[in-house]
UniProtKB/TrEMBL annotation:
The chain crosses the membrane at residues 32-52, 72-91, 103-128, 140-163, 170-189, 219-236. Keywords: Membrane, Transmembrane, Transmembrane helix. This is Uncharacterized protein.
Amino acid sequence: MTTDSVSTGDDPHRLLSDVRLLAGRVRRDQRLTWVALLVLAAVTLVAVPFDWLFMKVQCDDGGCMFSRRAMLYYWPPALLLAYAAIAVSYVRAARARGLGARVLPYAITGAATAVVLTAAYTAAAAYFPSHPPFGGGPMPFWWIVLDRLIAPWGLIGLALLVLARLERNVPLLLFTLGYLVLVLLVVPTTEGMRLPDWLIPSFLSGTTTQLRLSMTPPQLIAGAVLLAGGIGFSQARRRQR
């Protein structure tokens, strides 16, 4: 009876562990989370002047009616271009490393959100002027949350959840959940509030200007959070290298 020695390199458990470590390194190396967040931040912040210019406001003794036409004229093409740019960045980075990219489901989800946004706001613009929700009275909080979910910044969060799943990226998942809590549960309560007069220059005074300005903070907050996230993930990637 003889005893043969087995090297640690032939240990199946050791080999499996090495394969898992290598797969994890490959996944981390493929991540361009910071690129996605910075592109989406740019799209969100650039939307602010577009929302201002394309917002239609009509005021009378009974109050003011507004239509955010940038939701149709700016956001759908902007989202499509943004997700196309993100997908191209992932594919180029993967090819440079001789690897495959799994970004297609994310790009498809992003494109689908642009379609959902267009359909939702087209239907709302056609239906709600003659059928005010809740009889024109105060809207319940759940309705506000739903409205924010199908808004561009809410749909961006849903698409980021898909990206976190594809990358198996726990930090991105946690960031996205925090972002969604902010834009769905916190930011909506600021919309429609009157800004202090001392914050508004005299040449921007007026009811219609007040209404436009009251819509700006949510977009600025969402864009700033995405920008901060992109910078943070970029710095973390540099430290890993």
